[in-house]
## 1
Amino acid sequence: MTGTIGFCTKRRSFVSKMIRWFTRSKWSHTYVIRQNEPDILVLEAGMFQVQIVPITKYESRKYSNVFFRPDGFSQSDITCGLMKAGDKIETRYGWLQILGFIPVIMAKRLLGMKISNPSKGGIVCSELILQYLRGLDPSGPWGSLDRNTVSPEDLYEVLSSHAKFKKVESL
């Protein structure tokens, strides 16, 4: 279970709805399970910073969840990925990056252009999970994803087609 990536959506949240609309994703947030004993803890880019929280935060009826379990990776690979993402603990959340996604997504949708997110600093959930994946397997298909524009949907699509990740509906 350690190293499993979770995707979720808070059903009645304005912010969640806006993220899903702009990214054209079913998911508005993503996290990775860091520890499973004695309690399940997840590493996430939360409201204010990268932090470790109990998974119970996402187990209420307010959330829809799906998980991708890493099958076929060694425990040392998973540990390496978690360490790379864990280096970001206490990094502030990238609220300005969220706002910066607006011109990025509009340029892509309306003009077919790819531009970088003009807002730097901080970290968002998709970027944190990309850090984990690059630590897990630097040569994986996520290598082509841009940390400044990656969305939960981008990660979901890559993991859905990756042979070493198994989609599961519950833990």
Note: The first helix runs from residue 14 to 23.
## 2
Amino acid sequence: MRRRLCPKEALFTPSFIAVCSANLLFFIASFMMVPVLPIYLLDGLHAAQAAGARLSLHMIGALVMRPISGFLADQFPRKMLFLVCGILFAAQFEGYLLFNALALVGIVRALHGMSFGALSTSAATLAVDVIPIAKLGTGIGLYGMMGSLAMALGPMIGMLVLEAGSYDAVF
């Protein structure tokens, strides 16, 4: 779809705000796990090296899924893809509590990374769709800032929730 350059189009539309907010929230949820999951695995008396290997499976899953999800975003309605990926992403947090065996945590971690990769890719395509072309640089910058903000807030929120509650509360 070719879009026109119209400098008077508003950037802060309800759609843009919704996509940025969703991006912020799912990135916060993901970054909450950064400090908590290693503690969870080590509390389960898993060796540090094995726990570290399981943690890396998240990003490996995301890396594998990003090109595939980009293709899917071009083939299917983007909102539907985003919603399906969001539901899968949210549902997989429960897997950390259900499967404490290290091998199963690795599978959950890889699947969670795949849904994260698909969700973040589909969210980015939605963002580009709702940003006016005359404000594309500003819009992409603000959209990307949500990931940076989540990286700053997520680990702190994860540790605060863990200290105030339990692993159940974080996951």
Note: The chain has a mean pLDDT of 90.
## 3
Amino acid sequence: MIRVKRIPTSMGFDADAINRLLAQQSPGKMQRTISEEELWEALGNPFFYLFVATDFESNTPYEYIGMATMFFQRNLAPWISEIHGVVVDEKQRGKGIGELLTRKLMDTALDFSKARDVKIELCLTSRPSRTAANALYQKLGFILIAGSYGEWGTNLYKIIVEPTGLRGLPG
């Protein structure tokens, strides 16, 4: 059984597993790693959320097989939230783990919206080469609002989160 849970500041984490997943996020690109100190700093931000997926029916039930992050930010007008770093271990892809993670992030944004009675613009980006991810985001209701151009280009998706639910654009 796959479980997705938030890593709170009061709980430990496996920095090596997080870095293993980070390396799979952009294979062939500059390798990114994060230190334990940097992880604690990020987790200390009350508007930053790190979620990990684990498979409790496997031989390694506490191994991270996927992760995703999001943050919330108050702007002058709306609240915004961005999803980042959705990555599933290459050996676990095609099992719906990316969808479970993304749905958990969407549910978290909805809970945040309800708790504060606010509208949130929830955004994410995805390189066009990630065809499965791009299809997933559209399936979940995200609207492509800007397409990718050039080597550094990325697709930009958005969905509106209100206390009554999520909706695509416009409206």
Note: The longest strand covers residues 64-74.
